[in-house]
From TrEMBL:
It comes from the Eukaryota. Keywords: Signal. This is Domain of unknown function DB domain-containing protein. It comes from Caenorhabditis auriculariae. Residues 1-16 form the signal peptide.
Amino acid sequence: MRWFLLTLCLASSTLAWNCGIGKVSNLLSFAIAFPSQDLTAVNRCCQEHDDLIESCSRDEADHSFCKCLGNSEHWYVRTVVKPLFCISVNLYTKFNDWYNGNTVYLVNDCFHPKKFGYRNDW
């Protein structure tokens, strides 16, 4: 187990992995995406997401990010990586909105899917 974690740490740092906002989320995102056989495409989606955050709203960047992951040719990215990463970025965005005093849409004490950013076109 230690060797596996060490390998993940070394691989994520040597591959210039762009997913995640810190060391822990960077390592976790790499571990989730590692079995995908499409690390380059996932990493590209993460980099594009970071670039879009600089030029447009977080909601637009999150939507584009999820669409990018959904366009992958690999089933693992579409069925495992995309849902986990999309939930993560959307939760992060909604938490920041709430923390900064912006409106967060809730229905029955849960995030409403349509307001939360989940769309069928992903």
